[in-house]
Write a structure and sequence with these properties.
Strand content: under 5%
CATH architecture: Orthogonal Bundle
CATH class: Mainly Alpha
Order of helices and strands: HHHHHHHHHHHH
Number of helices: 12
Distance between the termini: 21 Å
Largest sheet: none
CATH topology: MetI-like fold
Number of strands: 0
CATH superfamily: MetI-like
Shape: globular
Number of domains: 1
Length: 257
């Protein structure tokens, strides 16, 4: 059993390894100009150099602060709004149509308008990330709350739960799988939007580092940025998935029983 799990995990490294080998072969055969595709070892050296200078960590810290701020604002408001719509048909009737209409606007489509309203400073980036985190949390929280069986509320009435206790002890725990899924999607979306915002308008951050590399034709710097974005995105997704698995362990125990 354990051996099979190890084999499954090892298979996940096969494709990245093949890509790396192909990359090395292509650069050695000089199928592309060195200005467009640098060798893997040069990307590694550039990564180490950026780490030693402290530039990379500085840009990463700034990017993480933006993500956390936007994610916290978006998920908090999204959770409250999604819960309210899930609990109240009236709130859903009044605000639901507007919400569903506005969310049809592509997230990148908000950029020009936000830049007009907020400029290109920190507020623009944080608000854009907040919007990206807001939508999935609202939708998944709403679906989770609305799908809680009525029998749960009936049992709570027997025990004379107050509305707040019903929400805290019954509705939120029952809706937790859907809520956590929304949070995971929101965090991934926040990271993607951060990079997009920094590529368009920033003087600091990972996206800015890539923009600078493009301006000066430093392909190795751009590729370092691309790889870091991908790795961090993967780590974020896996970390949230593990947290989700931890909080929902009672569900698996119940199913096993």
């Amino acid at each position: 059993m354990i051996l099979n799990k190890i084999k499954d995990k090892l298979w996940g490294f096969v494709l990245p390894l093949l890509v790396l080998i192909t990359w090395e072969i292509v650069t050695r055969l000089e199928l592309f100009p060195i200005q467009l595709l640098v060798p893997p070892k040069q990307v590694v050296f550039t990564f180490i150099d950026l780490l030693k200078k402290g530039d990379l960590l500085t840009h990463l810290r700034i990017s993480f602060m933006r993500v956390l701020a936007g994610f916290a604002i978006g998920t908090s408001i999204g959770f409250i709004f999604g819960t309210a719509m899930g609990l109240s048909r009236r709130i859903e009737k009044y605000f639901g149509p507007l919400f569903h209409a506005v969310r049809q606007v592509p997230l990148l489509g908000w950029m020009p308008l936000l830049m007009l309203w907020l400029g290109i400073g920190e507020a623009f980036k944080v608000v854009l990330i907040s919007i990206g985190a807001f939508y999935p949390v609202v939708l998944n929280t709403f679906e989770g709350v609305r799908s809680v069986p009525k029998e749960y509320a009936e049992v709570a009435q027997v025990f004379e739960y107050s509305k707040f206790k019903l929400l805290r002890k019954v509705i939120i725990p029952a809706a937790l799988p859907s809520i956590l899924t929304g949070i995971r999607i929101a965090l991934s979306m926040s990271w993607l939007l951060l990079v997009g915002a920094e590529l368009m308008a920033a003087s600091e951050g990972v996206g800015f580092l890539m923009t600078q590399g493009r301006r000066f034709f430093q392909t190795d710097v751009v590729m370092v940025g691309v790889l870091i974005i991908g790795v961090i995105g993967l780590v974020i997704n896996n970390t949230v998935a593990r947290i989700e698995k931890y909080f929902l362990r009672w569900s698996r125990t119940f199913e096993a029983g």
